[in-house]
TrEMBL record, chain A:
Gene3D superfamilies in alphabetical order: 2.60.40.790
Protein name: Hsp20/alpha crystallin family protein
Superkingdom, natural source: Bacteria
Similarity comment: Belongs to the small heat shock protein (HSP20) family.
InterPro entries, A to Z: A-crystallin/Hsp20_dom, CS_dom, HSP20-like_chaperone, Small_HSP
Automatic annotation (TrEMBL), chain B:
Domain SHSP, first and last residues per copy: 35-147
Family that this chain belongs to: Belongs to the small heat shock protein (HSP20) family.
Name recorded for this polypeptide: Hsp20/alpha crystallin family protein
InterPro entries recorded: A-crystallin/Hsp20_dom (IPR002068), HSP20-like_chaperone (IPR008978), Small_HSP (IPR031107)
Gene3D superfamilies: 2.60.40.790
Amino acid sequence: MNTLTTENKQTLDEKAGVKEVQPQVRVYSPNVDVYETENTILFRVEMPGVDETSVEITIEKDQLQLEGKFKMGAEEKGQVRLAEYKEGNYFRKFTISKAIDSEKAVAKMKNGILELSIPKIEPKKTKIEIRNS
Amino acid sequence: MLFRILDPQTKTNQFWRDFDRLNDELTRSILNDQFGSSSHFPPVNVYTKEDEALVTCLLPGMDTDQIEINVKDNMLSIHGKKKAEDLAEGTEVHRREIFHGEFHRTLELPFRVNQDQVSAKYVNGVLNIHLPRREEDKPKKVSINIG
């Protein structure tokens, strides 16, 4: 189950009488698969409707942040009969507990799925000698 | 259901009935929170104009040959199978939220469709189906001659 999105928090706040000015953009928490192999961590993120130019991936220390803007086609569509989804932004954040080499991360986008692979690094072992003084 | 108090027969108390109803509604709203409920995969939008309909659906990560679209009269059905990712041996799974398996959706359109001219395209994980209205089904303009 997904966590509360910004939008939900907003409506909850409104019900509780808390007023907070926030932009009227829907924020969706995308579905994610996370796999780990011997030397990489692989994220697969569902972002339908997003092209690679509007995806933003940032890694800061152990914080991974994934963002994507979902815009519907601008063509004239006519009368809305059924609307089960709306445009908005995808946003999700992760904390990675393993040592990773974020410089060497590779991301690609295919058919609305973002694939991000981040190589792991072996934590360096340092042996400390005890000196006798 | 978030949780349920057992033995509903004994619940004559108005409070518990109200509580149950609230519980039901809360659960449903949480389940439907994302892109509609899970029984409605994939989520679709339907738009209509006088002479055509457009159905868009969020279907990320599909092969186009795994999507089957059938049209008969005013019924559109989308059927498909989403394969699970093949994992190399020794892969550890931390999270698996992306749907895989079979799905089936049938939609009723407000008019009959010309089957031969239905076109579909798949861009960035969104499927767009254009359904032109059948010629004999289109509204006809009648001009009135005053004479």
